[in-house]
Amino acid sequence: LGRFGVLFSGGVDSTLLAFLCKKNGLDFTCYTIGLENSQDIEYAKTIAERYGFDLKHRTLTLDEFENAVKDTIRILGSCEMVWVSVGSVLYAAAKLALRDNIRVLFGGLGTEEIFAGYQRHEEALKNDNFEALHKECWSGLRNMWQRDLLRDFKIAKHLGVELRTPYMDENLIKTAMSVHPMYKLDKEQKKIILREAAEDFGLDREFAYRKKKAAQYGSNFVKGMDKLAKKSGFSAKKEYLQSLANKFK
C-alpha cells in the first residue's frame, strides 16, 4: 500500500479508521481542513495528540475557501448546496495531501448508511418500526452512488487522487446489514454498533461516542458560505452559489 492519507474529521468513522491503521503499523498521515473556529480541527488535534497520529491540518482564509468553492463547482458542474459544501471539504483536504505527494486517501463513507447515522434513520424508527429503519438503510446504500460517491470520485479523479472507502467493503456491508437494526440506533445515540466496536478495539469512549456535526458544519464551511454570500451582496447562500455557477457556463 505504501504511504497514504486519512481524511480526518475527528468523528468516530475517521478516528476508528486512523486508530486501526496505527494499530497495524501502516504509514499514513491524517488531513483535516476547516475555517476559523472549526470544531473538526480542534477535535482532530486532541485525538491526534492522544494516539500519536501524524496530523496535518489547515485553517483556510475566507479567500482560500472561496477559491475552493469555485473550483468545486467547476469540477462538479453543480451548485447544489450539500454537494458544494461537502465537496469543498474533500477538495481542500485532498489539495493539502497532494502537497505531501499523497495520492491515496482513505475516507469514512458508508458508515451512516450501514450503521444508521442519519436523521432520516431516526425518523424511520419512530413508533419502534425496525423494518422501516432497515429499509431506510438499504435505500440509503442504493442511493449513495448518485449522492455521495459520484461527487467525491469526480473531485478525486480531477485532482488525480485515489479515494478508498474501507467501510464499503462488501463483507462489512453484508455483516452490518445482517445485524438487527435495534443494535444500531436508539433514542439517545446513532451508529451504536460502530461506537461499541470502536470501544472494543480500544478507542476511548469519549471519542467513540463523540456527537459530531456533518463535515460541512464541523469544518465551518456552511458559515463560511454565509459570509461569502453576504460579502458578494447576496442574502442567501443558494443565490451566491448560483451566481458562481453562472460564470462557468
Describe this structure in words.
The chain contains 13 helices and five strands. Strands 3-2-1-4-5 form a five-stranded parallel sheet. Helix 2 (39-51) links the parallel strand 2 (28-34) and strand 3. The termini are far apart. The radius of gyration is 18 Å and the shape is globular. It has helices at 12-23, 39-51, 62-76, 81-99, 111-115, 119-125, 130-159, 170-177, 192-201, 205-208, 215-218, 221-231, 237-247; strands at residues 4-7, 28-34, 55-59, 104-106, 162-164. With 249 residues, the protein is α/β, with parallel strands linked by helices.
Question: What is the element string, with H for helices and E for strands?
Answer: EHEHEHHEHHHEHHHHHH
> Which parts are unreliable, with pLDDT below 50 for 5 consecutive residues or more?
none
Q: Strands across the major sheet, in which order?
A: 3-2-1-4-5
- What's the rounded overall pLDDT mean? 92
Beta strands, count: 5
Percent helix, as a range, is 55-70%
User: Which class best fits the helix and strand makeup?
Assistant: alpha/beta
N- to C-terminal separation?
Answer: 40 Å
Number of alpha- plus pi-helical segments? 13
Tell me the Rg in angstroms: 18 Å
Which term fits the overall shape?
globular
The proportion of strand residues reads 5-15%
Biggest pleated sheet: 5 strands, parallel
Assembly type of the chains comes to single chain
